[in-house]
Write a structure and sequence with these properties.
The protein has 313 residues and is of the alpha/beta class. 38% of the residues lie in helices and 17% in strands. It is built from 9 helices and 14 strands. It is globular and about 55 Å long. The chain binds NADP nicotinamide-adenine-dinucleotide phosphate.
């Protein structure tokens, strides 16, 4: 089967490369990883051409315009990459009976809910990035609305970390440079490992060389538990110290602050907690729970393992 992966140089794209370059996926599949150099997703012609050339049965879209603050002044570009490109991928998939695996964000919500967000909760993104990601979700859902044999999954995730720039790496860098840190303690969410997310996504859509008969739809996809940016920073710094890193900051010298004390160009949701019940039902229906032993591992265990790897490298 031909598999086309967009966004090969991003955090999630690199995680897909790590996993897809291993058996069993290598046997019987032709896998092509595409980055910005091979296809600029803001260019519809380039995207149509590459889909035609590779004629994939599975499209994995790990690419996105992810510069949340910059998006406020680049709305058209963000919309082209986060909504128009996924719409074209979806239209191709519907026409060819292919599967599309796409990713979205907790930022489609405004964060005002008291409790955990279900997939069916009303979207109300606060910033341009969230608006364009929601537009991408809607475009995909509409394109597949009357499809009989093509399938899609949109995995909504949050606070991703992997190979690339992310909050944990920034905190560990600052912790080497400064004796104190101030971190937002009133925004709640779930840190998500790119490796964890790629493994989950692959199992949902692919069974060796066969497409999995998944139920099309949007699924929240985050590990178990919840925290704040302050909680994440504190754990990451403590884990780095425990792994032998030499830092200027003491884990107890991190100061919790409110989001109001750290204004950014784009507002963020105060509550990004996502329910994974729908995902769990689908994994059970597909008989995948035993194949994904880590799918329900708590976020903090995964962050500690990640920081240990970073500190050792
Ligand atoms: N990061 C998070 O905290 C987070 C949270 C929630 C949801 N998500 C979602 O998770 C998915 C993966 O995110 P990530 O963290 O892996 O993002 P990332 O590290 O920023 O990677 C995004 C990739 O998209 C590529 N890209 C951007 N514009 C492009 C264009 N015009 N043409 C071709 N490629 C382009 C980038 O290419 P270059 O490498 O050339 O720049 C980059 O490789 C995205 O759908 C994102 O919205 C992320």
């Amino acid at each position: 089967m031909n598999i086309l992966v967009f966004g090969k140089d991003g955090q999630l794209g690199r995680a897909f490369q790590d996993q897809l370059l291993c058996a069993p996926f290598q046997n019987g599949n032709t896998i092509t990883f595409v980055g910005r150099n091979e296809c600029d997703l803001s260019n519809a012609e380039q995207l149509r051409d590459i889909l035609k050339v590779h004629s994939p049965k599975l499209i994995i879209n790990a690419a996105a315009y992810t510069a949340v603050d910059q998006a406020e002044s680049e709305a058209d570009l963000a919309l082209a990459i986060n909504a128009t490109a996924p719409e074209l991928m979806a239209q191709y998939a519907v026409a060819q009976g292919a599967t599309l695996l796409h990713f979205s964000t907790d930022y489609v919500f405004d964060g005002s809910k008291q409790g955990i967000y279900q997939e069916s909760d009303t979207c109300n993104p606060l910033g341009i990035y969230g608006k364009t990601k929601e537009a991408g979700e809607r475009a995909i859902t509409q394109a597949f609305a009357n499809s009989m044999d093509a399938r899609y999954a949109i995995l909504r995730t949050s606070w991703v970390y992997g190979e690339g720039a992310n909050f944990i790496r920034t905190i560990l860098r600052l912790a080497k440079e400064r004796p104190t840190l101030r971190v937002i303690a009133d925004q709640y969410g779930v840190p998500t490992s790119a490796n964890w997310l790629a493994e989950l996504g692959l199992q949902l859509v692919l069974d060796g060389t066969q497409l999995r008969p998944l139920t099309s739809g949007i699924y929240n996809a985050v590990p178990r538990g919840e925290t704040t940016w302050y909680g994440l920073a504190s754990l990451a710094v403590q884990a780095a110290v425990d792994s032998g890193a030499v830092l200027q900051v003491d884990p107890n010298a991190i100061t919790p602050i409110s989001a109001a004390e750290y204004p950014l160009p784009a507002p963020r949701p105060m509550n990004s907690r996502l329910s994974t019940q729908k995902l769990q039902f689908e994994l059970e229906r597909l008989g995948l729970v035993s194949k994904l032993p880590h799918w329900n591992t708590p976020w903090d265990e995964q962050v500690i393992a990640y920081v240990k790897r970073l500190t050792a490298s």
